[in-house]
Structures are given as C-alpha cells and as structure tokens.
Design a protein that fits this description.
4-stranded mixed beta sheet, alpha/beta, globular, 10 strands, 6-stranded mixed beta sheet, single chain
C-alpha cells in the first residue's frame, strides 16, 4: 500500500509512513501493513537493521481521529480492534531481534510517540516535538506508552508527561533520555543511515544476541542473566562470523560477515 513504503538497501530496511497530508496519522490498515513489514524484515536474511521514519514534515501524529470517528465502535469492539490491529506493531517488535532505529523527522504525538518509543534507538530532528497527547483528547495511551515511557525517563517524569500532554522539544527530549541524539533537519536521515549501516556492518548474530539479552535481562535477576549470556556466548563463539571478526580485528581490517 502506498500509505506505507518499504524498501531494503545495503542491509537496511526502511519503513516509511506516507500520509504527509495527515502528518502520517495511521489507520488500522496502515498498522497492519506496518506489522507485516516488520515481520518481513525479521525473516529476511539480507536485512540487518531497520529504520522507521515518516514522509513530509511529521513523523506520526498517532491514530487518525477522523478515521476513528467514521468507524464508530462499541467499547468491546474497539478494545478488540486495538488488539487485532494497533497492538500488532509492539507485539511484532517483541519478536524482532534486529536493531530498529526511529528517525523522528517531525512531530510525534500520542500513538505516534508510542511507536517511536518502541524502537531501540531514536534520532530526532532539531525542529521536531514529542507529546503524550492522549489526555488532551480525553484518552489514555493505547499503544504501550504507560509501559514504555517510565522505563525511559522514570515514573515521576513519565506521569508528568502523560498527565499534562506537554510538548517536549528535541533538546529536552535528549536531556531526559527520550532520544539518543538531535540532528539538523537536513542531516537527520544521513545520520540515521550512517548509524544503521555501522550496526549492520557488525556480526549479525552477535548484534541480535546482544539485543535479546539486553531486553530479557530487564526482567531477570543477575544470576539468571549471567546464565543466559553464557549460553549465548557459547553459540556466538561457534559461528564463522565470530572467527572472522577476531581475524579482522587482529589484522586491522574490516570484517566480512555472512550471518552464521
């Protein structure tokens, strides 16, 4: 569908929201395609990193409220619709162990910010703003914001942002840990792809194991995490990429990795 574009180049997949006239507000059909492309990238051995961004001047303004109004549903039906459509994206990301980078090229509001927070890394344009704006329209975060935000900025700051719906400028977002780095609007995508390609050039199995362990360890005690990583270490050391990485490091050259 042309409202969501997907392409792969140099081991990096790009998912681009493409409703610039709506600041990339999404419909259920769009998030279905979004989830499908994430799973496609996960299954594609040529893809080693994923970039998510928006077309035009906005990253994502959340769900299209005018579209929702046209599809009025009863409470139970709407709950089921969230589960069957919008929640497919965060649940798909739970199964994606490849690096996912958000290039926040413009404002990310409500569920649009939720979608950015689901990514592993976030780079933002200096003219972009972020807001947990649900409360402004009498809603609650419907796409994981209450789970994601406290883990990034701490509970007190998260509640402040959730309760007020205040705008957060790019520099402030970096200060409180919402984003990794701020870039000039003209250089954002270059910086994003430079980072994505740098990660994609590393041994893919090791990169994926690191992501799995980092997230899994948030829910484990230290002893269990150490037991997990010792198993991962045994697997990674057995790969041809591990041998190649050691040789390339010793010989001071760039390694050539095949993902096994």
């Amino acid at each position: 569908m042309n409202e969501l574009e997907y392409e792969v180049a140099e081991h990096v997949a790009t998912i681009r929201l493409n409703r610039p006239e709506k600041r990339n507000a999404f419909t259920f059909e769009m998030v279905d395609a979004w989830a499908d492309r994430l799973l496609e990238a996960q299954a594609d051995p040529l893809v080693r990193a994923i970039v998510v961004t928006g077309a035009g001047k906005g990253f994502c303004s959340g769900i299209d409220l005018s579209w929702v109004a046209e599809h009025e549903q009863k409470p139970l039906e709407f709950k089921q619709a969230l589960t069957d459509h919008i929640h497919r994206v965060p649940l798909a990301l739970e199964n994606v162990d490849k690096p996912v980078i958000a290039a926040i090229n413009g404002d990310a509001m409500g569920a649009g910010l939720d979608m950015a927070l689901m990514c592993d890394l976030r780079l933002i344009s200096d003219n972009a703003r972020l807001a947990m704006s649900y409360v402004k329209v009498g809603l609650v975060p419907g796409d994981g914001g209450c789970w994601l935000l406290p883990r990034l900025v701490g509970m007190p700051k998260a509640l402040e942002l959730l309760w007020t719906g205040d705008m957060v400028a790019a520099d402030q977002a970096a200060e409180i840990g919402l984003v990794n780095s701020v870039h000039d609007s003209k250089g954002l995508m270059d910086a994003t792809y430079a980072l994505a390609r740098r990660i994609a050039a590393a041994p893919p199995v090791a990169v994926r194991m690191i992501k799995r362990t980092a997230y899994q360890s948030q829910r484990l005690d230290l002893r269990t995490s150490l037991d997990l990583i010792s198993s991962h270490m045994g697997v990674v050391r057995s790969t041809s990429d591990s041998v190649e990485a050691y040789r390339a490091f010793s010989e001071k050259r760039v390694g050539e990795f095949v993902g096994r």
